[in-house]
Specification:
The complex is a heterodimer of chains A (about 775) and B (about 160). Chain A has about 775 residues and is of the alpha+beta class. Chain A contains 19 helices and 28 strands. Chain A folds into three domains: about 1-25 and about 475-620, Aldehyde Oxidoreductase, domain 4 (2-Layer Sandwich), CATH 3.30.365; about 35-135 and about 200-255 and about 260-290, Aldehyde oxidase/xanthine dehydrogenase, a/b hammerhead (Aldehyde Oxidoreductase, domain 3); about 295-470 and about 620-770, Aldehyde Oxidoreductase, domain 4 (2-Layer Sandwich). In chain B, about 55% of the residues are buried. The chains are: A alpha+beta (about 775), B alpha+beta (about 160).
Chain lengths: ~775, ~160
């Protein structure tokens, strides 16, 4: 099929590429507005306290200060900052400003001043008298009897059990795991722990807000969710939604951290208070602990297997913390069950989790959305089981993995905060991913006889598999609009938010392919709530399949209008016409054709007809992309260093609309996964303060730290996706870490169960094993 | 506030700027409309604010603007010749090395200074050079490929001349 396509499946350059490589002003902060003020937020220095008194008089008196806001000055509307579809499944436990602070970095006050220096001075002049409350910092303490209650305010809603600091709880079972474990020949169980990871977009959160001449509030912001942000800001500031205009320019990386209404509300409040443009931009330090992070989890994973390796029961019990507020609390953790356990068929599955509040920086959406934690546990345990059963880890996986035609009932049970829809597997390239990945890493040879240990160096290879979703079934939806200009070019308007992953390019390719025109004929405008139609936004790996589906439908409708007019112009029945190479051409015999440009001119000035249409799109399933990752590692037993020599990612994302961009998604995900596994951790001290909020002390990987990467795109045809596409944005982030750790086990016999694994951890483990 | 005047040649144009002695070069450049100079960390760790100062790649967030007095500056805005992109810019597009594009100007300028000194680098040398430009999107493979491809293109161009 794909060979007949001229645009889809081809490596076109990014449609927004030239402006990015030439540094043209394209990002949120790349504008200057006359009279713009600088906004700053006063962060709490206490992990848990009531504000007994707050005196802003000195700050207000400072020349150049235009506004100082505290909880007394703003509406009190319980909400969630999670940028999710209404009604949001996260607890409404957050306030624009509050009289209680719940983590170091929580908002105490906000100022707007004529310069950053004045704004910072104003923050220093705000006198806050705190009544300290005992903080809850450890995840295991939060539910203990007598633990301090973090959300004791009466007006928050949607909290599972505020008195026990439980933001959310999930318990789901299919079959009976108790029965399954009784029937099993062997039972394996282990506990795993994961840390707090930060997104680290190189562009920190930044928002500029002002009142336009019609007194409407414009919010230009680095967001993945312009439409959700518009709805939430209107609600929080108690102004009509009609008065809010959200603009998403180019975004300097999101990774889930910008699926959050984070600065838009407070920046809008300052703009309303001052009637001047206001900019708030997080510093790198603020980005670390005042934005969002990946939920730390303690995972207890248990599997029962038969002698021949068949899994008969799998159970995952999770204790996670969402930090001080429950943004994405239940949905992230629900995903840890729904996307992880069903990778291996078992008639009996159980998932339970408690998500607790702690007085720690707030967790939220982060690429992978609960799956990196879950697959770390599952892929480590599965590797252990295969080892104990003396089975090849690939063979063990092949025996148990989900396959074409399967219906996964657990994901229906877990849904998106409420019961969802069952997932049917209509395309699955996982067997080919395993086969091609194994060949690329030279599995057979290296697994049987790892390269000989060279003194203090040990070699090993490992594998891990995962799946994700493509959009949220039955919830995510998008609309696209296409209009024809009189020169034969098209405007494609989409609410979809390209955050750097290349959505504008992919959507333009889908439009061009469907319309039968070259890619340069498509001009994309995206993510502007005044101009573009609705889209839930860039998250849940949804854009290609959901927004792309809307674009394809829209383009088909527009193509029909074009063909209809061409039929009239050429006097050829519509059925005999096709759109191809910027022409409408008669299919058989006769030589008749018209260029789209001539047709467009004719439509505009002769017919007086604007060719324009739109279509909305959603799907009631979430087709999973699949991924198998292989690592070849060398462990230095003298230094404890784990050197990844080669990392192979074989991924089934359906038909890749733009293969090179798809590879880029996989490669970037691997870098974030390896950081998660081996270097990155937000470290909090005993008072809940993050002690490493800089790139120097919180180490993300650089070009020198990356191993040799091989990315293999295994093409399948997904019936529900536009041109057979699924998703690629998240799936590859789940398993680079467990693939490497399984290779470390192969090399050393040591199993690591706590992330990140640093050289000192390796040395300690080697010395405990006594075999260094 | 005391101000001083500095003179620079930036992207081929002579400019005189009135600045405060403590102003950082990054802030002054952005204030003057060179928005391609990006703010990522303000502590010399991420490289997003890279510009060329007398041909050398520097982090403009950890340098006083006053230190640039009398110097020649190149920002990303000055790299292309009209609509003709520099071979490094071309290579970044061609290789898919741009995702969000926020770290891209810094990477390209760093590579520009580097290739002027080392026209035929090894992959390891390119990785060493790019280690000062943090990127959270690409995993670096395609940027490294782009710099190597640009080096090749430049060598070819030199040969053809």
């Amino acid at each position: 099929m794909s060979s007949e396509r001229s645009i889809v499946g081809k490596n076109f350059k990014k449609v927004d590429g030239v402006k990015l490589v030439t540094g043209r002003p394209a990002f949120t902060d790349d504008i200057h507005l006359q009279g713009m003020l600088i906004g700053k937020i006063l962060p709490s220095t206490r992990a848990h306290a009531r504000i007994k008194n707050i005196d802003t008089s000195k700050a207000k008196a400072l020349p150049g200060v235009h506004a100082v806001l505290t909880y007394r000055d703003v509406p009190r509307v319980p909400h969630t900052t999670a940028g999710q579809a209404w009604p949001e499944p996260s607890p409404k436990d957050t306030y624009l400003l509050d009289s209680k602070v719940r983590f170091v970095g929580d908002r105490v006050a906000a100022v707007a001043a004529e310069s950053r220096a004045i704004a910072e001075e104003a923050l220093r002049l705000i006198e806050v008298e705190y009544e300290d409350l005992p903080p809850v910092l450890e995840i295991e303490q939060a539910m203990a009897p007598g633990a301090p209650v973090i959300h004791d305010e009466p007006d928050s809603t949607g909290i599972h059990d505020a008195s026990r600091n439980i933001a959310g709880h999930i318990f789901k079972e299919i079959g009976s795991v108790d029965r399954g474990f009784r029937e099993a020949d062997y039972i394996f169980e282990r506990e795993f722990r994961t840390q707090r990871q930060q997104h680290c977009p190189i562009e920190p959160h930044v928002t500029i807000s002002w009142l336009d001449p019609d007194n409407r509030l414009v919010i230009r912001t680095s967001t993945q969710v312009p439409y959700h942000a518009r709805r939430q800001v209107a609600q929080i500031l108690q102004i009509p939604l009609q008065r809010v205009h959200v603009v998403k320019p180019r975004i300097g990386g999101g990774f889930g951290g910008k699926q959050e209404m984070l600065l838009e509300d407070i920046c809008g409040a300052l703009a309303l208070a001052t009637r001047r443009p206001v900019k708030i931009e997080y510093t790198r330090e603020e980005e670390f602990y005042m934005a969002r992070s990946r939920h730390p989890q303690i995972l207890r994973m248990k599997m029962g297997v038969k002698r021949d390796g068949e899994i008969v029961a799998s159970q995952l019990v999770v204790l996670a913390t969402t930090g001080a507020y429950g943004s994405h609390a239940t949905t992230v953790q629900g995903n840890t069950g729904s996307k992880v356990l069903p990778l291996y068929r078992a008639p009996n599955m159980r998932f339970e989790c408690h998500v607790v509040y702690t007085n720690a920086p707030v967790a939220g959406a982060f690429r992978g959305y609960g799956c990196p934690q879950g697959f770390f546990a599952q892929e480590s345990l599965v590797d252990e089981i295969a080892h104990e059963l003396k089975m090849d880890p690939i063979e063990f996986r092949r025996k148990n993995m989900i396959r074409l035609g399967d219906v996964d009932e657990l994901s229906a049970e877990l849904g998106e905060g409420r019961r969802g829809l069952p997932r049917r597997i209509r395309s699955c390239g996982l067997p080919e991913c395993l086969e091609q990945g194994a060949a690329a890493i030279d599995w057979e040879r290296k697994r049987k006889a790892p390269p000989a240990s060279n003194g203090h160096l040990r070699r090993g290879v490992g594998v891990a598999c995962s799946m994700q979703g493509s959009g949220i079934a039955g919830i995510d939806w998008a609309c696209a609009m296409i209009k024809l200009n009189e020169d034969g070019s098209f405007h494609l308007l989409v609410g979809a938010s390209d955050v750097g992953a290349g959505a504008d390019t992919v959507l333009a390719q889908i439009a061009a392919e469907t319309l039968g025109v070259s890619l340069d004929k498509i001009t994309v405008t995206s993510g502007d709530t005044d101009i573009t139609p609705f889209d839930v936004g860039a998250y849940a790996s949804s854009t290609t399949i959901i927004s792309g589906g809307a674009v394809k439908k829209t383009a088909e409708k527009v193509r029909d209008h074009i063909v209809k007019l061409a039929s009239k112009m050429l006097n050829v029945p519509p059925d005999n016409l096709i759109c191809r190479d910027n022409h409408v051409v008669a299919k058989c015999g006769c030589d008749k054709s018209v260029t789209i440009a001539d047709l467009a001119m004719h439509a505009t000035y002769r017919e007086k007809l604007q060719i324009i249409d739109s279509a909305s799109h959603f799907i009631t399933d979430s087709p999973p992309p699949f991924c198998a990752q292989f690592a070849d590692v060398e462990v230095d037993t003298e230094t404890g260093e784990i050197r990844v020599l080669h990392l192979v990612t074989a991924v089934d994302c359906g038909v890749p609309i733009n293969p090179r961009q798809a590879e880029g998604q996989a490669e970037g995900a691997v870098a974030q996964s390896l950081g998660y596994g081996f270097t990155e951790e937000m470290v909090l001290d005993g008072q809940g303060r993050m002690i490493n909020p800089s790139f120097l002390d919180y180490k993300i990987l650089s070009s020198k730290d990356m191993p040799k990467l091989t990315t293999i795109l295994v093409e399948t045809e997904e019936p529900l996706g536009p041109y057979g596409a699924k998703s690629i944005g998240e799936v590859a982030i789940n398993t680079a870490t467990p693939a490497v750790l399984n290779a470390v086990f192969h090399a050393t016999g040591i199993r690591f169960t706590k992330l990140p694994v640093r050289p000192e951890d390796v040395l300690r483990a080697l010395s405990a094993k006594g075999g260094a | 506030m005391n101000t001083i005047e500095i003179g620079v040649k930036i992207n081929g144009e002579s400019k005189r700027w009135r600045i405060a002695p403590g102003d950082l070069l990054l802030d002054v450049l952005r204030r003057e409309g060179y928005y391609g100079v990006k703010r990522g960390c303000e502590s010399g760790e991420c490289g997003a604010c890279t510009v060329l100062l007398d041909g050398k790649a520097i982090n403009s967030c950890v340098m006083f603007a006053a230190q640039a007095d009398g110097c020649e500056l190149l920002t990303i805005e000055g790299l292309a010749q009209g609509d003709t992109l520099d071979p490094i810019q071309d290579a970044f597009l061609e290789c898919g090395a741009v995702q969000c594009g926020y770290c891209t100007p810094g990477m390209i300028l760093n590579a520009k200074a580097f290739l002027a000194q080392q026209p035929d680098p090894s992959e390891d040398e390119v990785r060493d050079m790019l280690a000062g430009n943090l990127c959270r999107c690409t995993g670096y493979l395609k940027p490294v490929e782009a710099v190597l491809a640009a080096a090749e293109a430049c060598r070819q161009k030199a040969k053809d001349r």
